Structures are given as C-alpha cells and as structure tokens.
TrEMBL record:
PANTHER family attached to this UniProt entry: ADR380WP (PTHR37781:SF1), TFIIH COMPLEX SUBUNIT (PTHR37781)
InterPro entries reported for this sequence: Tfb6 (IPR031349)
Species of provenance: Fusarium oxysporum f. sp. lycopersici (strain 4287 / CBS 123668 / FGSC 9935 / NRRL 34936) (Fusarium vascular wilt of tomato)
GO cellular component, one term: transcription factor TFIIH holo complex
Bias (Acidic residues) ranges: 148-167
Location of the region described as Disordered in the Swiss-Prot/TrEMBL record: 144-178
Name under which the protein is recorded: Meiotic recombination protein DMC1
Superkingdom per UniProt: Eukaryota
Classification of source organism: Eukaryota, Fungi, Dikarya, Ascomycota, Pezizomycotina
Any one Pfam family match given in the protein's UniProt record, by short name: TFB6
Length: 214
C-alpha cells in the first residue's frame, strides 16, 4: 500500500514538473508546477507517509529517490528558501535516524531496528546517500544566490499561522523562520548536517559515488 502510494505520488510529481515546461492540453487534469513551494509540499506529504510506515526497506530507497528528485527539480525554479529548507531538515532527520537505527531526536529505537542495524542502509545505499547529500549542499548554496519566489513570503505567513494552531510536530522538523541573506547562508551550510555526522561514523573515509547531474 505504502509502496504503491509512494510510486504513484513521485510519478505525479514528475509529471507536474514536466508539465511546467509545456502548454496545457485540453482535458488534461495534471497541472504543471508554478512555484517550487508546491513541489516541496508534495514531496513533504510523501515523506510523511514513508516515515510513518516504519518500514526501512521502503523508507530508504524511496527517500533516496525523493532526494535525488529534489536536487533535479530545484534547479528549475526561483528559490523557495523556507519550503526548501523545511523539507531538507525533515529528510535530514529521516536519514540520520535510519543510519543510527533510532530517532535522532528522541533516541527511541525505530521499527525494523530492534535487532540492530542489519535492516538499515547497505554500504552502497550509504555511499549513494553521501553523494546526494554532498551534491545537495553545494546546490543549495548556489540556488540561494538567486532572488526568491515572490509569493513565498505570503504563503509562508499563512502556513505559519496554520501551523501555530496545530499540534506540535516531530521535534527537529520545524521550518525555517528567517530568510534574510545571512540566515539563508547559515541554513545552506546546515543542510543534512545530522546525516553527515552519521555517515561519517558509518562510512569513515570511503569515497562517495559520483552522481550525474541528470
């Protein structure tokens, strides 16, 4: 059920991304993305479902795929700092937790890790993860040099109001609260910082895979 949902939703995100570059066809129900904040919202929904599934064999490959998709899509839009850093912080939480077998904030053992790290990432997956993480960190520094989306400030103001009225989320999954230039650079420097710590502990000095830009 979760696998099918993740596959279908990631495919839908891809279709909406592709539609961004073409003219809508009559009767087509798939609408292209107008802003990167919309992409982040859809990826966030998929991440939530995967995390709640408690199934590492699904979480790991799909979260790696989702992160790879993020790095491909983000290049094609004006920056959406708050939405981008919010989803990246969530992915950082997920990967760091999956690498150590326990929630990185609460230190509770994750489902599937009751007998240790054998159900977690393989060495190949860890190397791929580190390559994606390194690529994403460099990319976010470059992307954030461009002017941000005009509508993001208004959207985030509404989102912040809605979030304040809801129950607190998982610790460590909060959004970015300030988007001035200094804070953007600091946030870019902190992308996947928890994951990097865990990868260094697990992999040591192994060389990362070279990922293509496609």
């Amino acid at each position: 059920m979760v696998r099918r949902y993740a596959e279908e939703q990631l495919l839908l995100v891809t279709r909406r991304y592709v539609k961004k570059f073409g003219n809508p066809e009559p009767g087509d129900t798939v609408v292209g993305y107008a802003r990167f904040g919309e992409v982040c919202r859809d990826l966030d929904s998929i991440t939530n479902v995967l995390w709640k599934s408690g199934t590492p064999s699904l979480q790991i490959p799909f979260l790696l795929r989702l992160t790879s998709d993020f790095t491909r899509y983000v290049r094609s839009f004006p920056p959406a700092p708050k939405a981008s850093f919010a989803i990246l912080r969530k992915l950082d939480h997920c990967f760091a937790s999956l690498l150590c077998g326990q929630d990185i904030e609460t230190h509770e053992t994750l489902p599937g890790f009751e007998n240790g790290l054998r159900g977690g990432m393989t060495t190949t997956e860890m190397i791929r993860c580190r390559s994606l993480v390194d690529q994403c960190r460099v990319l976010m520094v470059e992307v954030m040099r461009d002017p941000a989306e005009e509508d993001e400030e208004d959207e985030e103001a509404e989102t912040d109001t809605d979030t304040d009225a809801e129950e607190p989320g998982i610790k460590g999954w909060g959004g970015v609260e300030d988007d001035d230039e200094m804070m953007l650079q600091l946030d870019a420097a902190r992308v996947f910082e928890k994951t990097i710590v865990q990868l260094n502990e697990r992999l040591g000095d192994l060389e990362p895979l070279q990922m293509s830009a496609d």
